[in-house]
Amino acid sequence: MKKFLLATIFFTFGSYMSFAQVPTVATPLPQLNKEFQVIAHIVYDKDSNEATSPLMVTAVLNNVNSFFAPIGVSFRVCEIRSIYNFQYYDTIVDARVQEMVNQNFANNRINIYYLNSYKAPVGGKCYNTVAGTGFIVIVDNSPTTVAHELGHYFSLDHTFGTQAGTTAELVNASNCSTTGDRICDTPADPYTQSQGEGTFVDVNANCNFIYAGRDANGHYYNPDVGNIMSYYVSCNDCPHFTHGQLLKMANYYISTFNTSSKDRW
């Protein structure tokens, strides 16, 4: 009877796991062996106060490199440019940001613009992620924020998908390739920005996931709160990309960036 019970449990568990199967890390990651050149545009206010220091820009990017190392990618500051315009230092206007970029953009480089504030509580934003034509705005110059925006630059969505609170991804991962972030080793994430981080995680108890909502099948969510592309910003003791996210970024570069210009990046 004990053997039969164990066999039944194993079969049931095994059947569920097969149904919820996600890609394994057995798929080797491409090695791009690529150092991307970054131009850091630091904005100054009318009193010549800098949004961040050149030393911090370099130090943060050096830390970011560890997140991308599994696909042989690193980032190096090749030039720091100063923008003395207080109208860009603190702004909530997209048109003003675009004006700043139009006047201070370098081709075949990753352009990162460092502002003091922009559309609070946004710590950063990535624009126009189309094969090297995009740019990044940074307010919170921290490794996780910069890595998050670079993730967008190389095609990653948030773990909750393209719009917070609207994910149709199921916990059992049966539709993981078509909903959410469309990456199957990032668990379904129900995050909703309007409810705030405290609705979902207990930041005073090791970021335990406390949200009681369920998916369409009645299953409780258990997202990866330490994922760099999530919005659980207080849960960054061990920030990381998943294997699937790294694979998507590498393949995006391989397939999307113009082949003739790759060596110039």
Write structural notes for this entry.
The chain has 265 residues and is α/β, with parallel strands linked by helices. Helix content is 27%, strand content 17%. The protein is built from six helices and nine strands; from the N terminus they run H-E-H-E-H-E-H-E-E-E-E-H-E-E-H. It has helices at residues 2-19, 54-68, 86-89, 94-103, 143-153, 243-256; strands spanning 34-44, 73-84, 90-91, 110-114, 117-118, 124-127, 135-138, 201-202, 208-209. The chain has a five-stranded mixed sheet. Helix 2 packs across helix 5 (143-153). The longest helix has 18 residues, at 2-19. It is globular. Residues 1-21 have low confidence and may be disordered.
Tell the overall outline. Answer: globular
Q: Give the N-terminus to C-terminus distance in angstroms.
A: 65 Å
Which band does the percent of strand residues land in?
15-25%
Q: Largest beta sheet, briefly?
A: 5 strands, mixed
What is the secondary structure topology, with strand pairs?
Blueprint: H1 2-19, E1 34-44, H2 54-68, E2 73-84, H3 86-89, E3 90-91, H4 94-103, E4 110-114, E5 117-118, E6 124-127, E7 135-138, H5 143-153, E8 201-202, E9 208-209, H6 243-256
Parallel strand pairs: 1-2, 1-4, 3-5, 4-7
Antiparallel strand pairs: 6-7, 8-9
Helix pairs in contact: 2-5
